[in-house]
Write a structure and sequence with these properties.
Chain B: It is found in: Cell inner membrane; Cell membrane. Chain B: The complex is composed of two ATP-binding proteins (UgpC), two transmembrane proteins (UgpA and UgpE) and a solute-binding protein (UgpB). Chain B: It is a multi-pass membrane protein. The structure holds two protein chains of two kinds. Chain A is mainly alpha-helical. Chain A is 73% helix and 2% strand. Chain A has a two-stranded antiparallel ribbon with strand order 1-2. The radius of gyration of chain A is 24 Å and the shape is globular. Helices cover 70% and strands 0% of the residues of chain B. In chain B, helix 4 crosses helix 8 and helix 11 runs antiparallel to helix 14. Chain B is globular and about 75 Å long. The relative contact order of chain B is 0.15. Classes of the chains: A mainly alpha, B mainly alpha. At the A-B interface, helix 1, helix 3, helix 4, helix 5 and helix 7 of A face helix 1, helix 4, helix 5, helix 6 and helix 7 of B.
């Protein structure tokens, strides 16, 4: 392999902007988060003392934290599975129609560009208790909708808005994955008399499993972090803490509650969790490359 | 393909059209609501068709100060544009340079630099939000464009993508350029950048949308309308206390806020799909 070797100074010049920005805005804050997690600070930031693991203990012994974990798991799995199954269904259809496939793609990918907060507002309007269209329809069916009072309905609403926004991302990947499957495989199965359903479950679906796994990880990360905007505009974490996810709680405890130590401890716990997820993903991708 | 069934084709088209329609419906209803007056909205349920005060609504919203803010939506849109463009361009510039150094140079601590940069892939800004806020406050960058932009540039997604692409460049190309007497700058400018044109376009689309749609970070560090983005302003407009929510204003702002990124994605669709699928790590 050919490299530019004679200049010793130049690579550092090239790397400098990225290294500086990453150090100032990534490593420094990340380090402070870790450090803060081991200190207790008063609300004005005037005094602090070393607290060992007590911030972590405070977080982990609080039953509210576990209910937030549970909410996050229910929310993330619903968003991931909802957005993925709808996307897979539409992608299979778009892959099999030969005419117009790309037109459908155009009409299905644009929600990707809608901000999570904006998606939240659009869905909030549909379900507004006094003038929402869906609320009116539900009322006719005898269902009373008010997400400001009913925690389950609030959770359902943020799930719907998040699924709506995330579907297009999954659609793009599933369609690309489907188009990469050799048509000869499906044709020979058809000649052997396998029905379309059978062909899908025994050939297409297993061959899509790497894509599906990748998307499961990406969707979980989306549900963990990016949906903050949706939750904040639609429910602000409520009613009660019915729609408070892990990231939302960090924000609430740290910025609204000014409880820096426990907020930082939660950040560290979340870092470990996301680090683990990313690690699993990298491991998996490596294995797939060999295969 | 002969094994496909005609009847299934028709069903597929119908289902796809229904899917497209269902996904468009919420936006359509937001749009129709934005063209009615507030009293209209609260006397009927959400209208299905366009009303007659649309132009007036949008014109007033763009120019006059909105609920609780001392600027019109035009100013907010401008702030979003500055932020999104800044993030996209900034990220691309530093990533082009860093990936170039990592792939085409051999120098001490190269692997360490590689890991220092790529570890940032693991932790999005939401996790380290409080300390980042403090750092930015210490640097006097609250309520400024640089405060909006710089912390969101500190991630390696673009560097990672470009590195993957640079690795596919045949070594013979570098060799030939060197024999012809091209130095590293010349190689970057005349060979590498022209070759990565489509990748850079793809990156721009993805980063622009990422930047435009940011919520938590701009929410924290902007307190006045001079730097607030349009996406963040929506929450302000929804928080009315006991008064009725001015849904015609909120939906109109939502439509305006989704306009630019949706246009970008539709116009540059080809690059967007490529960029997204390439980003699969």
């Amino acid at each position: 392999m050919a490299y530019f070797q004679r200049s010793h100074f130049m690579p550092w010049l090239l790397l400098a902007p990225q290294l500086i920005i990453v150090s100032v805005f990534f490593f420094w804050p990340a380090w402070q988060a870790v450090e803060q997690a081991f200190y207790i600070e008063d609300a004005f930031g005037l005094a602090r003392h070393f607290a060992g693991l007590s911030n972590f203990m405070a977080v982990l012994s609080d039953p509210a934290y576990y209910s937030v974990i549970w909410t996050t798991v229910v929310f993330s799995l619903s968003v991931a599975l909802g957005a993925m199954s709808i996307a897979l269904f539409l992608a299979v259809l778009a892959d099999r129609v030969i005419k117009g496939g790309s037109t459908y793609k155009t009409f299905l990918i644009w929600p990707y560009a809608v901000a999570p907060a904006v998606a939240g507002v659009v869905w909030l309007f549909l379900f507004d208790p006094s003038l929402g269209l869906v609320t009116a329809l539900l009322e006719r069916l005898g269902i009373e909708w008010n997400h400001n009072l009913n925690g389950g309905q609030a959770l359902l609403l943020v799930i719907l808005a998040s699924v709506w926004k995330q579907m297009s991302y999954n659609f793009v990947f599933f369609l690309a994955g489907l188009q990469a499957i050799p048509k000869s495989l499906l044709e020979s199965a058809a000649i052997d008399g396998a029905s379309p359903m059978r062909r899908f479950w025994t050939i297409t679906f297993p061959l899509l499993s790497p894509t599906s796994f990748f998307l499961l990880v990406m969707n979980s990360i989306y549900a963990f972090f990016e949906t903050f905007g949706t939750i904040d505009t639609v429910t602000s974490g409520g009613p009660g803490s019915a729609t408070t996810t892990l990231v939302y709680k960090i924000y609430q405890d740290g910025f609204v509650g000014q409880n820096l130590g426990t907020s930082a401890a939660q950040s560290v716990l979340l870092m470990v969790l996301v680090g683990g997820l990313t690690f699993i993903q990298f491991r998996f991708v490596e294995r797939r490359v060999q295969y | 393909m002969r094994y496909q069934r005609r009847g299934l084709d028709v069903v597929s088209h119908l289902l796809l059209a229904a899917g497209c329609g269902l996904f468009f419906l919420p936006v359509w209803l937001a749009f129709t609501a934005s063209t009615h007056s507030m009293s209209d909205l609260y006397t009927h349920i959400a209208p299905l068709w366009i009303g007659d005060v649309g132009l007036a609504n949008y014109a007033r919203l763009l120019s006059e100060p909105v609920n609780g803010l001392n600027a019109g939506v035009l100013r907010l849109l401008f702030n979003s544009l500055v932020m999104a463009t800044g993030i996209a361009v900034g990220k691309i510039v530093i990533s082009v340079l860093a990936a170039y150094a990592i792939v085409f140079f051999r120098f001490p601590f190269r692997r360490l630099c590689f890991w220092l940069i790529f570890i940032t892939l693991m932790l999005p800004v939401e996790v380290r939000i409080l300390p980042t806020y403090e750092v930015v406050a210490n640097l006097q960058m609250l309520d400024s464009y640089s405060g909006l932009i710089l912390p969101l540039i500190a991630s390696a997604t673009a560097t990672f993508l470009l590195r993957q692409f640079y690795l596919t460049i045949p070594p013979e190309l570098v060799e030939a350029a060197r024999i012809d007497g091209a130095g590293p700058w010349r190689f970057l400018k005349d060979i590498l950048l022209p070759l990565s044109k489509t990748n850079l376009a793809a990156l721009f689309v993805i980063m622009f949308i990422y930047g435009w749609n940011q919520y938590l970070w701009p929410l924290l560090i902007t307190t006045d309308a001079d730097y607030m983005t349009v996406v963040v302003s929506l929450k302000r407009m929804l928080t009315t206390g006991d008064a009725l929510v001015p849904w015609q204003d909120v939906t109109a702002t939502a439509i305006l806020a989704m306009g630019p990124p949706v246009l970008v994605i539709l116009i540059l669709q080809r690059y967007f799909v490529k960029g997204l699928v390439d980003a699969e790590k």
